[in-house]
Write a structure and sequence with these properties.
CATH topology of the largest domain: D-Maltodextrin-Binding Protein, domain 2
Strand content: 15-25%
Shape: elongated
Number of helices: 11
Distance between the termini: 77 Å
Helix content: 25-40%
Number of domains: 3
Structural class: alpha+beta
CATH architecture of the largest domain: 3-Layer(aba) Sandwich
Order of helices and strands: HHHEEHEHHEEEEHEEEHEHEEEHH
């Protein structure tokens, strides 16, 4: 295999020519020269270079995915020859939504890293959309209904969403008995989270409206609901503790959020994947089977919260 291929992969991984040079014990000038030589031979620009960052071109993204697959195949071929099963090791860059990562990924990382001590984990929590290739992320946890054609993924868990409110809010309001009753209530949703698409058996309904408080944060919506500001549609993984201890109660339990949403681990499509990536996906798939937030879900009877 051309050694410049491995250099190209190292530059993308490191994020700069100088960092790649340090890792490979060569000067940044030599890294730049070899990268330019590779681009000249291929006849395409692979990386846009600026003073602040490197960015893959479209051709560079495709070539990088192929090179990574080739390198992984070579490692696997070596393992088959030597009879060694490669231990999950090396850098693993993971992105996850802020709330989900804080509540359900971070608490389990101690056990994961104890099992795989050679994995160098880099976890980034963000609610912004992450482009795995341009941001050099190996794996992202996403709550979505559809996977992009360019990505592979594995469904880790269902994402049940329930309508809920605090007893404090319901003490001064008539408890809704049907979806039409929601029109007389204060609704809470983050930006672009309405209309609510609800299902009950084979029935499907959309509930639209304006959030009583405008916010771009789902965590704020959760806290507003607990504080008695209004009714929210929340994922069980986000509010299971509040439902369990009575700070929130489920309303209209026959209606839930549409079932097409799932919690996925997604990663770039390639013929083979790093062992560290598969180890992470396998570990959390096991952790979420069954989803622990559903095991503790015990919604209160909202009828008991009616104003007395």
């Amino acid at each position: 295999m051309d050694p410049d291929y491995a250099l190209f992969a190292r530059v993308v991984e490191a994020g700069s020519l100088s960092a790649a040079g340090r890792a490979m014990l060569i000067s940044p000038a030599m890294v730049s020269k070899r990268l330019a030589r590779l681009e000249a031979r291929l006849g395409v620009r692979l990386i846009h270079r600026t003073t602040r960052r490197l960015a893959l071109t479209d051709a560079g993204e495709r070539f990088h995915a192929d090179v990574i697959a080739i390198l992984q195949s070579i490692r696997e071929a070596e393992d088959r020859i030597t009879g060694v099963r490669r231990e999950p090791a090396g850098p693993l860059r993971v992105s996850a939504p802020t709330s989900f990562g804080r509540l359900h990924v971070a608490p389990r990382l101690g056990a994961f890293l104890a099992r795989y001590p050679r994995i160098e984990l880099d976890l980034n929590l963000t609610d912004a959309y992450v482009d795995l290739l341009s941001d050099r992320v190996d794996l992202a946890i996403r709550i979505t209904a559809h996977l992009p054609a360019s990505l592979d993924g594995r469904r880790l868990a269902t994402n049940r969403r329930v309508l809920c409110a605090s007893p404090l809010y319901l003490a001064d309001k008539d408890v809704p008995h049907g979806l039409s009753d929601l029109a007389g209530h204060r609704l809470l949703a983050a930006d672009e989270q309405m209309p609510w698409r609800l299902v009950s058996g084979r029935q499907k309904r959309a509930v639209d409206g304006r959030s009583h408080v405008r916010t771009n944060s789902s965590e704020i919506v959760r806290e507003l609901a607990i504080a008695g500001v209004g009714i929210a549609l929340r994922s069980l993984w986000d509010v299971e503790d509040a439902l369990a201890d009575g700070r929130l109660v489920q309303i209209l339990p026959e209606w839930e959020g549409s079932t097409d949403l799932g919690i996925y681990a997604v990663y770039p499509r390639a013929p083979s994947r790093p062992a560290a990536l598969d180890a992470f996906v396998d570990f959390f798939e096991h952790c979420f089977d069954p989803p622990p937030w559903e095991a503790v879900h015990a919604g209160s009877d909202p009828e008991r919260q009616e104003k007395r």
